[in-house]
Design goal:
UPF0759_sf; 10 strands; TIM Barrel; 16% strand; eight-stranded parallel barrel; DUF72 domain-containing protein; DUF72
């Protein structure tokens, strides 16, 4: 079913032919999609936007791209073709985590997508990481700018709002693992988070669909006081499906405490690989164009949460990574099929 929806019924032969086909020198060509994909999109709620974590993966031949392109070309020119996929109405702009973007850069992205496309944007690590890190990613010192209210507004919220405008879907503060010295003073940590959230600029005038969400990578955050801090700060919880966090079922109490409200979810890593399993998943999943590790249990629960959210009239932004099941675009299709089957 997955292959036929992508219009690549020839399987490996079709993909091999696509690789042999010379790519145009200008731009990136989108894959041809079977009518069934558009029918699937038409059956989904308009308030649900599915997408992937970034888009610069050459292996998505036949599912997203018509031919073979370098990661560099896809990063610079692939977004327009990505947005032609019937089900990909959102994307997680992960690049923003590594270096702050300015309003002009955000505006350039917005100009490449349709009116109903929405971006999920990660806050820079300069704000969302409690540690300063060396080139190998090792923490070397506490970060004095962690959750800084002024920086969060000046280098993240304001440029994203002003550049993306009505194509802004969610601002996500993905808080990296926090050292024990900060976790031990829970009240101070929650106070710091709440102060930052309350200081963020108004978004809705320029970005009517914008949501602020907080994703964490420490289970110690989860609790009623965390949910209360988010609510007081006008934010929601980003459901982070990652091996560093409890299962989706065990994270749902936070969403229930914030109900009613929108859903933001980022499904990044299959639990089989463990908390530090990104490299293992990368080795196993190859070109990211096959569902190697289907996870129907997580998918079923996520579909139930999505269905409840949109049925209550709220927006849902759900992005999936290649390392969740092996191929982010095909995970999107599988999730969409399950939602329609409900």
């Amino acid at each position: 079913m997955q292959d036929s929806l992508f219009g690549d019924d020839g399987g490996d032969a079709a993909r091999d032919a696509a690789r042999r086909k010379p790519a145009r020198r200008r731009g990136v060509d989108a894959a041809a999609h079977a009518p069934a994909l558009q029918a699937l999109r038409d059956a989904l709620p308009a308030s649900l936007r599915l997408g992937t974590s970034s888009w610069n993966y050459p292996g998505w031949i036949g599912s997203v791209w018509a031919g073979e392109y370098s990661p560099q070309k896809l990063s610079k020119q692939g977004l327009r073709a990505y947005a032609q996929h019937p089900l990909l109405r959102s994307v997680s702009l992960d690049r923003a985590f590594y270096r702050p973007l300015d309003a002009a850069q955000y505006a350039a992205y917005a100009a490449q997508v349709p009116d109903d496309f929405r971006f999920v944007v990660k806050a820079p690590g300069l704000i969302a990481d409690a540690l300063r890190r060396d080139e190998q990613g090792r923490g070397i010192a506490l970060n004095p700018d962690f959750l800084d209210p002024l920086l969060a507004s000046r280098i993240f919220a304001e440029p994203a709002r002003d550049g993306l405008r009505d194509r802004l879907g969610a601002l996500v503060f993905q808080i990296s693992p926090v050292p024990d010295v900060l976790l031990r003073d829970r009240n101070a940590l929650l106070c710091r988070l709440g102060t930052m959230l309350r200081a963020l600029p108004a978004l809705r005038d320029l970005a009517p669909d914008a949501i602020v969400a907080v994703e964490v990578r420490d289970p110690a955050w989860l609790g009623p006081d965390f949910a209360a801090t988010l609510r007081a700060g006008g934010a929601t919880y980003c459901l982070g499906l990652h091996a560093k966090m409890p299962t989706i079922e065990d994270q749902l109490p936070i969403l229930r405490a914030l109900w009613p409200g929108p859903l933001v979810c980022r499904w990044n890593l299959h639990r089989r690989h463990g908390a530090y399993g990104y490299e293992a998943a990368k080795q196993l999943y190859g070109d990211f164009n096959t569902l190697v590790d289907p996870d129907p249990e997580t998918r079923t629960t996520l579909a139930r949460v999505i269905a409840g959210t949109v049925a209550a009239g709220h927006a849902a932004y759900v992005t999936l990574g290649n390392k969740a099941e092996g191929s982010a675009p095909r995970s999107v299709v599988a999730l969409a099929e399950m939602l329609v089957a409900r």
